[in-house]
Write a structure and sequence with these properties.
single chain, alpha/beta, Rossmann fold, 8-stranded mixed β-sheet, 5-stranded parallel β-sheet, 14 helices, 21 strands
């Protein structure tokens, strides 16, 4: 994801500095050219050699290091950086950056940056809530710096509270949001549904399906990385919600219908990736159904067709995509669904194909529209999500330019 990108990590004096080693390693694995700048105090917590080994680049500490002086290193590095993250950011470094004090390599380089600069405070809870520190953070935000809120947890000083630096995964997500993808969906609103629904029989039992939500969550995450404002309406799943996405949790098909119809109107792209129950029990018992001799019959009633409702009410500027999970006649059934639901596209796959069913990390999609069928090869769900979003974005551009459908 980060091939050709330059990431600068600024590390100041805090016990949380050890976490940045893992972050640097993750960035390198994603293809980034990673450069680490440390304050002298930071070297008391982690040695520069650690970062040099992980990144393959010399770790900079001294502004007047003769190995770098002829390059005017802080200016040279700042000019080619795509993003800078200062983490952990001590109260001292935050104060310097807020008032333009540049007296070491880290603060000097930060002053020369024209790319996005992220700041992750890490300190004692009382220091963090000190009004001076809070004013400095607001000042930095007013200059366009991005502040990563600290976690609440057990701190090195032995107390529990705000000031704990987030995990490497959180810091990585902030970086990826800035430079992970081209922002071709910036300014667009994308609504995604994901996961199964549960239809209650009684207080103990429910009807559901095998959907894990992985495909829908991958679509929501990739849309966010590409700059979209994303709303994810999710059935009950065991997944961590993607960061920077508005998540609306629901349980039943009725709840999903209500959530979707409350926010669909101002969306640009709507992707119905959820496996919504077609039927639900006609009667939900207040008490547990007791086991008896003989068979049991459960009367079912039809749930509201969310995709059909969206197709009937779709605005001229909107692109609507449904999903089709089939066990036979994938193309025929999906083409019929495209027409019946008045969708712009159906993303279809076959449950019986290895690697394309529920709960897998990969998928094989057929993107079906009026322009034809685009057969995507087997790929990861993140890759499939990107291909789908590109196709829908192209449809959206053509629709809003008045040219109608196009090849995908």
């Amino acid at each position: 994801m980060l091939k050709g990108k330059t990431v600068v990590l600024g590390v100041s004096g805090s016990i949380a500095a050890y976490k940045i080693a893992g972050l640097a390693s993750s960035l390198v694995k994603l293809g980034a050219d990673v450069h680490v700048i440390m304050t002298k105090n930071a070297t008391n917590f982690i040695h520069p050699t650690t970062f040099e080994t992980l990144t393959g680049n010399k770790c900079m500490v001294d502004t007047f290091d003769r190995n770098f002086q002829f390059h005017i290193s802080h200016v040279s590095l700042a000019s080619r950086a795509d993003v800078m993250l200062v983490a952990p950011a001590s109260a001292n470094v935050i104060g310097k950056m807020a008032f333009g004090i540049a007296d070491d390599m880290l603060t000097t380089t930060a002053m020369a940056m024209t790319c996005p600069v992220l700041i992750s405070p890490a300190m004692n809870v009382n220091m963090f809530h000190n009004p001076i520190l809070q004013d400095n953070l607001k000042r930095l935000e007013s200059y366009g710096r991005i502040i990563i809120p600290p976690d609440n947890g057990y701190l090195a000083c032995g107390v529990t509270g705000d000031g704990k630096m987030p995990s490497e995964e959180v810091l990585l997500d902030y970086i990826l949001r800035e430079i992970g993808c081209e922002k071709d969906l910036k300014g667009k609103k994308v609504l995604v549904t994901a996961g199964p629904t549960r239809e209650a029989l009684d207080p103990v039992r429910f009807l559901t399906n095998h959907s894990t939500g992985k495909m829908g969550y991958a679509i929501a995450r990739q849309a966010m990385l590409r700059g979209a404002e994303v709303t994810l309406v999710s059935g009950p799943v065991g997944l961590v919600p993607p960061r920077f996405v508005k998540v609306v949790p629901v349980v039943s098909a009725g709840e999903m219908y209500q959530a979707v119809t409350e926010c669909w109107e101002d969306q640009d792209i709507i992707i119905k990736a959820a496996a919504v129950a077609d039927y639900c029990p006609a009667q939900v018992r207040d008490e547990k159904i007791k086991k008896k001799d003989g068979d049991l019959s459960i009367e079912l009633k039809r749930t509201t067709d969310i995709l059909g409702w969206l197709g009937a009410h779709k605005k001229e500027h909107q692109v609507l995509c449904g999903f089709s999970m089939e066990t036979e006649n994938v193309e025929e059934n999906s083409k019929a669904k495209l027409e019946k639901k008045k969708a712009d596209m159906i993303a279809a796959n076959c449950l019986k194909e290895a690697g394309a069913g529920f709960g897998t990390e990969t998928n094989h999609l057929l993107l079906i529209s009026d322009a034809g069928i685009h057969d995507l090869p087997m790929m990861t769900k993140a890759e499939a999500a990107d291909e789908l979003l590109s196709a829908l974005n192209l449809l959206l551009k053509k629709k809003n330019s008045g040219k109608g459908g196009t090849e995908i």
